[in-house]
Design a protein that fits this description.
By secondary structure, the protein is an alpha+beta fold. Helices cover 60% and strands 14% of the residues. The chain has helices at 2-37, 87-96, 119-153, 158-191; strands at 53-56, 59-62, 67-73, 76-81, 104-105, 110-113. Helix 1 (2-37) runs antiparallel to helix 3 (119-153), helix 1 runs parallel beside helix 4 and helix 3 packs antiparallel against helix 4. It starts with a helix and ends with a helix.
């Protein structure tokens, strides 16, 4: 009986390393998705203003908490403030966010025309996406290295360590493949005219 208990404790230790590594690698994917949302691909989307914060009575507040953000068509974003006096503040915040937009207001709504991307700009955005994908891969590989190090330190049999290392490598390969798929989709979106 004692042997079974020790075996199960050793197994739990390895399972914990594997589970926490999966979680860390998933965080890298989540971060990549967030970064990709900030890389605009030409079609107007409220998400393009996701990083904009507005000075609302002295507090930096996300734009979506002081206005309704929507799209009029494929190349126009509209921002309808809930309080009319916020129009100039919203316009200023969009300019300060340095997203390459030139907002205009008609006294009711802030209107942003999203310019059609040039071929050169598309290539730059594709490089930016590639760079973000590489950062995610580096993060995943660092998580793998850390997990392998933790596995070696456990007080378990060599067979169990070897099996855990195989599991970590399999998980790593899956997440690296995920990054490649995310990049492929984003790159197609960026290059599509």
């Amino acid at each position: 009986k004692e042997n079974i208990n020790i075996f199960s404790i050793m197994n739990e230790e390895l399972e914990f390393i594997i589970d926490s590594t999966k979680e860390l690698m998933q965080n890298a994917i989540t971060h990549l998705e967030k970064e990709f949302r900030n890389i605009r691909a030409g079609k107007a989307s409220p998400a393009m203003l996701g990083s904009v914060t507005v000075d609302y009575y002295g507090t930096q507040t996300p734009l979506t908490q002081v206005a309704n953000v929507g799209t009029m068509d494929a190349h126009t974003i509209t921002v309808q403030p809930w309080e009319k006096h916020m129009l100039q503040e919203i316009e200023k915040a969009i300019m300060l966010a340095n997203l390459g937009f030139n907002p205009m207001n008609n006294g009711e709504v802030v209107i942003i025309n999203v310019p059609i991307l040039t071929e050169e700009r598309r290539k730059d955005l594709s490089k930016q996406a590639k760079s973000e994908a590489e950062h995610a891969k580096v993060s995943i590989r660092n998580d793998r290295r850390e997990a392998m190090h933790e596995i070696k330190k456990t007080d378990t049999s060599e067979d169990m360590k070897a099996n855990a290392e195989i599991d970590i490598q399999t998980i790593t390969d899956k997440f690296i493949d995920d990054v490649d798929q995310h990049y492929k989709i984003k790159d197609e979106e960026i290059m599509k005219v």
